[in-house]
Amino acid sequence: MGSKQTNGEADSAQGFSKEEKAAMKARAKELKQEAKAVQNKEAGTRDVIAAIEAMPAETREMGRLLHAIITTNAPGFSPRTWYGMPAYANHEGKIVCFFRGAEKFNERYMTLGFNTSAALDDGNMWPVAYALLALEPHEQERIAALIKKAARQLS
Predict the structure, then answer these.
(1) What are the tens digits of pLDDT across the range 116-145?
(2) Quick one: which of 2, 74, 102, 113 is 20 to 30 A from 22 by CA?
(3) How remote is the C-alpha of 71 from its chain's centroid?
């Protein structure tokens, strides 16, 4: 009485075909991975904010501003700490950029750095770290452009 299955179609009396079951299992796995990624991003964001809030006042203000610029211009990046510093990773988990306060290594300036994964290549020579003393609108625009470029390179 049951009909013969063809092309992955299920017999209505038997339920789902093997192919449909496999697709549902794959989708369930994807949903779990997506939920885990969201949880990891949320945990990373909490860690980055906590690291920024633990910084001295001047560094903290710079960190807050950089965090806003980076997360606004590269929403696909995942905040996380890296050697105790606020950092932002690509979809593979590789650090793209980071912020280091002057107090970290007793330097006279704060640093915004970019790792190889940022792919900011520009000819035969280009900067991969920037000394920061203040962030006026012009510097904020330059940083936003660099972050956008790094995000485009990774998409």
Answers:
(1) 999 999 999 999 999 999 999 999 999 999
(2) 2
(3) 8
The residue behind tokens 């306060």 is 101
pLDDT in tens, 90-106: 988 899 999 999 998 89
What CATH code is carried by the domain that includes residue 45?
A: 3.90.1150.200
Show the DSSP H helices in the chain as ranges: 18-53, 57-73, 137-154
For residue 112, being part of any structural domain is answered with: yes
* Domain count along the chain: 1
Q: What is the pTM of this model?
A: 0.77
Note whether residue 29 is domain-resident. Answer: yes
CA distance 49 to 154: 24
Task: Indicate the DSSP class of residue 15.
Answer: -
Q: Please give the residue range of the domain that contains residue 120.
A: 18-154
- Write the single-letter amino acid at 142: R
Would residue 7 count as lying in a domain? no
